[in-house]
Amino acid sequence: MRRCLQLAACGLGHVRPNPMVGCVIVRDGRIVSEGFHQYHGGWHAERNAILNAEKGNVPLDGATLYVNLEPCSHQGLTPPCADLVAEKGISRVVCCNDDPNPLVAGRGFAKLEAAGIEVVRHILENEGRQLNRRFFTFMEKQRPYIILKWAQSADGFMAPERCQTENGERAYWISNESQTIESHRMRTEEAAILVGSQTYLDDHPQLTARLFGGRQPQPIVLDRRGRLTDVPAHWLHLGCKTLDEVMHILFEKKIQSLIVEGGRKILDAFITEGLYDEVRIFRSDAVIGAGLPAPTTFDEQKTVYY
Prior knowledge:
Layout: H1 2-9, E1 22-27, E2 30-36, H2 45-55, E3 64-69, H3 81-87, E4 92-97, H4 107-114, E5 118-120, H5 125-131, H6 133-141, E6 145-152, E7 157-160, H7 177-189, E8 192-196, H8 197-203, E9 218-222, E10 236-238, H9 243-252, E11 257-260, H10 264-272, E12 278-283, E13 291-293, E14 303-305
Parallel strand pairs: 3-4, 4-5, 6-11, 6-12, 8-9, 8-11, 9-10, 12-14
Antiparallel strand pairs: 1-2, 1-3, 7-13
Helix pairs in contact: 3-4
């Protein structure tokens, strides 16, 4: 099962809004095939592992299939995996997590058991939930998995008192080059990134992963005061008054994870409502002395420093 989780993690940033899934097939005490879900719309992990076994002329009768999420039971972009597993003579399925998707939710296991396959569940369950925390949060809480992210100086400021030069350009960057590249790498792993209208007006951000490459997040601006008129067409421009409204829209649009990179006001709004799952803080060695203080009331147990 640990190997399943390793394989599944290869899909990070590529399979959303699907979960990351890996599969290992064991026969006569040894691994005979592996597979994972590689990209959204592609074959699922079980089918890839079975196809790999068949390419090598490996018999599957009596084999045990390990997978970190309940095999799907419905027709989506690909056929149901539970049916395929049942067809191949596999005698035992060992699984990490039940699928909370209402389209599956136990039906995959029921199909396997109806076919006479032994099903073992909840192996390394916590590790599986951690790997697919975005998927489980989205399905169970009906909102994206939310990451609050900001950079701060060694003395705890997000920005100096004078943030811009006379020509309107940013006068000071807290993050260094390596931190900025890491921030862009993180963006490739999440579905969307959100700022408030003041950050949009002050910084004219692109909200892309241009310094790293990979799948680009959906840029979002929350314009609660209706101040913006020049938002690019590919941005999601939200005029919501409450974060509950924002969450409803993002859930309807199947946006599974969200980085909040806004200024102090928008970060405080999410922190006050307890509407976050992780905090990521990029710390600089620089001492500013005065300016805009960084948030201080967040949950340290959910926080990682970079």
